[in-house]
């Protein structure tokens, strides 16, 4: 039996794949430029953006899952 948290994780992962796939399908040239830009960006900037994104995601999950 799967836990609710694991099911939510798989749903979130599925949504991530859908959005990423749509971005590549809709504009492959733009995605190629975005990847080249990410390669040229220094590690510390990518790290800060990644941590900020993770924190924003956790806050969003917390806000949506807390009891009203």
Automatic annotation (TrEMBL):
Name of the protein: DUF2065 domain-containing protein
Pfam families linked: DUF2065 (PF09838)
Keyword Metal-binding appears in the UniProt entry: no
InterPro entries to which the protein is assigned, alphabetical: DUF2065
Keyword annotations of the record: Membrane, Transmembrane, Transmembrane helix
Transmembrane region(s): 7-25, 45-64
Record carries keyword Nucleotidyltransferase: no
């Amino acid at each position: 039996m799967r836990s609710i948290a694991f099911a939510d994780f798989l749903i979130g992962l599925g949504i991530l794949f859908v959005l990423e796939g749509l971005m590549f399908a809709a504009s492959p040239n733009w995605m190629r430029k975005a990847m080249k830009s990410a390669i040229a960006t220094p590690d510390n900037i990518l790290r800060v953006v990644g941590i900020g994104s993770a924190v924003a995601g956790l806050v969003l999950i917390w806000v949506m899952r807390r009891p009203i």
